[in-house]
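ARCHIVE CARD
CATEGORY: sequence design from structure
SOURCE FIELD: tokenized fold
FIELD CONTENT:
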């Protein structure tokens, strides 16, 4: 876990130093609303007929909808982001299985005081659309569902922007894990006789956002979230999202998605998800 945190820190430092070397004159800020809503559909298909070398038919699809709504004014900045991702895959004659499922919303209000740091307040929600399963020996076991679990995080503190493409903040935070039928997996305290459907934690949250263009058609975005309930280094929840998008044409993109997740209450080992996607992208706003 330490090497992943170190890798994230090094990545931020390298990007920050490259921006310093680039230099350049500061541009006058453009105030007002800046909205963006983008939908992406990725499809993968393989069909075999009398293929003597072996193999199975495959079909997979993933739909992503990303929204960014920012109201930047001289005294404040209010930014809200939303993400909806859902995908299915099928191999051979097996039933279709869910490959990705995420609902995510975050809103951050920052008051500009002209200092190096500015006070902020934020709210974040994370959950999923449909029921999720694990598969073993031809059977499936339900392990999650809509709002089961759901994560809510409220935070107040101070934010700063060390570079034009980096935004960071740190503050006191409240985190709630909400469940319905899968409390034993996500919210229950095994040291108590009753089953807790809600787990509340008080701690400190740190969030860093990066959005950097490496070329005219290539964009790197990342978000590193750390939450500590102050009980020890092993109790730090980590979510690190990385996305590299290359725009081949006006509507065709290639995307590399890498995500690292660690929450000791869910699993004592880190979780990793990686996907390489090519598909169609359309901007509604």
């Amino acid at each position: 876990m330490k090497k992943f945190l170190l890798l994230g820190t090094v990545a931020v430092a390298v990007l920050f130093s490259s921006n310093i070397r680039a230099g350049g004159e500061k541009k006058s800020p453009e105030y007002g609303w800046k909205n963006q809503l983008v939908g992406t559909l990725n499809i993968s298909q393989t069909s075999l007929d009398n293929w003597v070398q072996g193999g199975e038919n495959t079909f997979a699809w993933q739909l992503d909808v990303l929204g960014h709504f920012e109201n930047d004014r001289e005294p404040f900045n209010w930014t809200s982001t939303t993400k909806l991702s859902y995908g299915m895959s099928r191999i051979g004659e097996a039933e279709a299985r869910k490959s990705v499922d995420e609902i995510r919303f975050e809103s951050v209000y920052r008051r500009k005081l002209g200092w190096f740091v500015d006070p902020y307040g934020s709210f974040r929600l994370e959950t999923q659309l449909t029921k999720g399963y694990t598969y073993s020996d031809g059977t499936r076991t339900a392990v999650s569902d809509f709002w089961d679990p759901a994560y809510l995080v409220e935070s107040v503190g101070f934010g700063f922007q060390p570079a034009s493409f980096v935004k960071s903040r740190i503050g006191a935070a409240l985190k709630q894990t909400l469940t319905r039928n899968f409390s034993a997996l996500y919210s229950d305290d095994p040291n108590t006789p009753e089953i807790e459907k809600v787990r509340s934690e008080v701690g400190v949250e740190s969030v860093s956002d990066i959005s950097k263009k490496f070329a005219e058609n290539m964009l790197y975005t990342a978000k590193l979230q750390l939450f500590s309930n102050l009980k020890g280094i092993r109790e730090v929840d980590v979510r690190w999202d990385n996305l590299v998008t290359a725009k081949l044409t006006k509507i065709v993109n290639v995307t590399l998605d890498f995500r690292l997740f660690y929450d000791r209450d869910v699993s004592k080992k880190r979780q990793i998800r990686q996907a390489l996607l090519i598909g169609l992208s359309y901007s509604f706003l």
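CARD ANNOTATION: Residues 2-7, 12-24 have pLDDT under 50 and may be disordered. Helices lie at 2-22, 183-186.
SHELF: design records, drawer C
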